[in-house]
UniProtKB/TrEMBL annotation:
It holds the Pfam family Peptidase_M19. SUPFAM superfamilies: Metallo-dependent hydrolases. One of its GO terms (biological process) is proteolysis. Keywords: Dipeptidase, Hydrolase, Metal-binding, Metalloprotease, Protease, Zinc. Its cofactor is Zn(2+). It catalyses: an L-aminoacyl-L-amino acid + H2O = 2 an L-alpha-amino acid. InterPro entries: Metal_Hydrolase, Pept_M19. This is Dipeptidase.
Length: 432
């Protein structure tokens, strides 16, 4: 079957897909559409009349094609690049606007949902996502969020917690740079050593488990994958990764990791980026390469651990036959035709595996919260910098000022609640 060949309407697979897709949602765990809104519109959606999400856009994602693609649940990715261009050497003590930039990504998705509330529904739990699809008469698509890299929490577990409060349901441990939590696959490709998960990263995984924030292992190094699988108390997610056995890219999932994912109960959502699907000796990448990667996961570890994480709008173009969000049904039907899977198995691949992992993370979180409070530790290399005048502020208890290592930068004093340089002018001012 050529990649351009459609499964003809009226065939058995076609009829069975039509019936199955009314009962079970297609779930995509990674779509970068919010980044297009950042880069091309600076988030000015309502003042850009040419932008209409309910009509055909020229990118990969819009409502028309999401409906055609039978998408039931969409994780929109909130992605901001690593801090500096030199991805092999990042200074995480440099002040950064990355949390602002991530909040804007979250905000634009919430606005998109609000402006299309007939078509989209923002959901907070796996049950809400499934209910959104299965509600009698509902045609709404469930929308939720992922953050693509712990560099976007800018060192702070407090930010992890607040992203969760804002509706983010997974965080990828790294993007294409190491951070204080973990080693990235691209750093290993770039020649750095694979240090895996750090001590602080371990604490972060525990906090994510406690929150019910899915731990996403796309983009991380091989050792980080192994370390997390030895640490996490909840099933893991690969939000957009393909298999290393078929495409030897450092960020694809090796077979030893796949076997551990089976034990862990996690899910690998196959990425449609042609670079991560291309098999040796093949000139062009088609929908059948995605089928091959899915089959590899299924043949090695079964139908309970595979899903879709397209990377649409984060890639220049999809494979032939898998060009945009309208094409998921073609992929489902081709996998079905190639494997002769049961309806239950196909439903799991379409999205029920992801919803199961999400739900299990919620259950682990509920259990952990009974016995564990928030993890309140900090990165041990974080610099805490204050003005000299802060020393004049009241001490919490005797000796509190001596507990933590701070740096003090100047000799400013605090007058009338503002910083002054201590000159006589200031003294005069203070009397008023
Ligand atoms: Zn990515």
């Amino acid at each position: 079957m050529d990649a351009h060949t459609q499964i003809p309407p009226g065939t058995d697979i076609e009829r069975r897909f039509e019936a199955l897709s009314k009962r079970f949602p297609i779930v995509d765990t990674h779509n970068d559409f919010p980044y297009a809104l950042r880069m091309q519109l600076h988030y000015e959606l309502s003042s850009t009349p040419q932008f209409d999400f309910d009509s055909l856009l020229t990118s990969h994602t819009d409502l028309v094609r999401m409906r055609e693609g039978r998408i039931g649940v969409q994780f929109f990715s909130c992605w901001i690049e690593c801090k500096t261009d030199d991805i092999l050497s990042q200074d995480f003590n440099q002040p950064s606007s990355i949390v602002r930039d991530t909040l804007e990504q979250i905000d634009v998705v919430r606005r998109l949902v609000d402006e299309h509330s007939g078509a989209l529904r923002f959901v907070h739990t796996a049950d809400e996502a499934l209910a959104c699809f299965q509600d009698q008469g509902s045609t709404q698509i469930a929308i939720t969020l992922g953050v693509e890299g712990l560099h976007q929490v800018d060192l702070s577990l407090g930010v992890v917690r607040q992203y969760h409060a804002l509706g983010v349901r997974y965080i990828t441990l790294t993007h294409n740079c190491d951070n204080p939590f973990a080693t990235a696959a691209s750093s290993v490709t770039g020649g750095l050593s694979d240090r895996g998960l750090t001590v602080y990263g371990r604490e972060c995984v525990r906090e994510m488990n406690r929150l019910g924030m899915m731990v996403d292992l796309s983009h991380v190094s091989h050792k980080t994958m192994l370390d997390v699988l030895a640490t996490t108390q909840a099933p893991v997610l690969f939000s957009h990764s393909s298999t290393y056995a078929l495409t030897a890219h450092e960020r694809n999932v090796r077979d030893d990791v796949l076997l551990l994912v089976k034990k862990n109960g996690g899910v690998v959502c196959i990425n449609f980026f042609p670079e991560f699907l291309q098999q040796r000796g093949r000139a062009r990448v088609t929908i059948d390469d995605a089928v091959a990667h899915i089959r590899h996961v299924v043949e090695l570890i079964g139908w309970d651990h595979v899903g879709f994480g397209s990377d649409f709008d984060g890639i220049p173009q999809g494979p032939v036959g898998l060009e945009d969000v309208s094409k998921y049904p073609d992929l489902v039907k081709r996998v079905w035709a190639a494997t002769g899977a049961s309806e239950e198995q196909v439903a799991k691949m379409m999205g029920m595996n992801v919803l199961r992992v999400w739900k299990q993370c919620e259950l682990v979180a509920a259990r952990m919260r009974q016995t564990h409070g928030p993890v309140d530790s900090n990165w041990d290399q974080r610099r805490w910098v204050f003005h000299e005048y802060c020393k004049e502020l009241p001490e919490l208890f005797p000796g509190a000022f001596g507990l933590k290592q701070n740096e003090y930068t100047d000799t400013q004093t605090l007058v009338n609640g503002t910083a002054h340089d201590g000159s006589e002018d200031d003294a005069a001012h203070a009397k008023n």
